[in-house]
């Protein structure tokens, strides 16, 4: 299968792998992991490629969701992608998990706010919109990817907005209470919509020659991990 791309998303507890060819995802595999995706990811890659009769060396490139997301989850996905890309000499590109969540909902005429859980009472979010330039709609980022308290995200209440991503379902009641009729929600439980966003955005960049050096591919955490700093060593008295 010529011109095929591997697509990987392990940003959250929901993981997904797909094969993109001829402008669509032709093979997919999804799963849920409570901790990280180390055990599931490579079997999923092997399964998707094997069923399609594709080897890593025959791929045209790899697109991967680079975060924000879970620390261990992102490390697992990007580690596998970097290993495959380095071994097979493939171009690779990282795609914002939030933009990938929002992109399938373009064309609604509404600003799109993608939301995922960030832990410790925070959410990761970003806003996007199709902008009509007189000839065609153009997808445009309205804010940077951010991690804040939910109240910060909801502070901008002036416009009708479509909320999507895993966090939209988790915080649906709070979003509706804050925005009322201006809140439009798409509640998604499966990761395939986000994987399709990673594929469409990533493959477009790869085909435009915008691949990244493998060594430069990094997860986008947006904040430090929630690991308790080690305690200072106390003075031990010698008897």
Query: Unreliable segments (pLDDT under 50, ≥5 consecutive)?
Result: 227-239
Instruction: Give me the strand/helix succession.
Output: EEEHEHEHEEEEHEHHEH
Range of helix content: 25-40%
| Broad shape | globular
Ends distance:
74 Å
Tally of individual helices: 7
Main β sheet profile: 6 strands, mixed
The Rg value, from CA coordinates, equals: 19 Å
Task: Please provide a written account of the structure.
The chain is of the alpha/beta class. The protein contains 7 helices and 11 strands. Strands 6, 7, 8, 9, 10 and 11 form a 6-stranded mixed sheet that branches. The longest helix has 18 residues.
Question: Gist?
Answer:
With 239 residues, this protein is of the alpha/beta class. It is 30% helix and 29% strand. The chain has helices spanning 38-52, 71-88, 97-102, 150-153, 166-170, 172-179, 192-207, and strands spanning 5-9, 14-21, 24-32, 61-67, 92-96, 112-119, 122-132, 137-141, 146-149, 161-164, 183-185.
Explain the layout of strands and helices:
Blueprint: E1 5-9, E2 14-21, E3 24-32, H1 38-52, E4 61-67, H2 71-88, E5 92-96, H3 97-102, E6 112-119, E7 122-132, E8 137-141, E9 146-149, H4 150-153, E10 161-164, H5 166-170, H6 172-179, E11 183-185, H7 192-207
Features:
single chain; alpha/beta; 30% helix
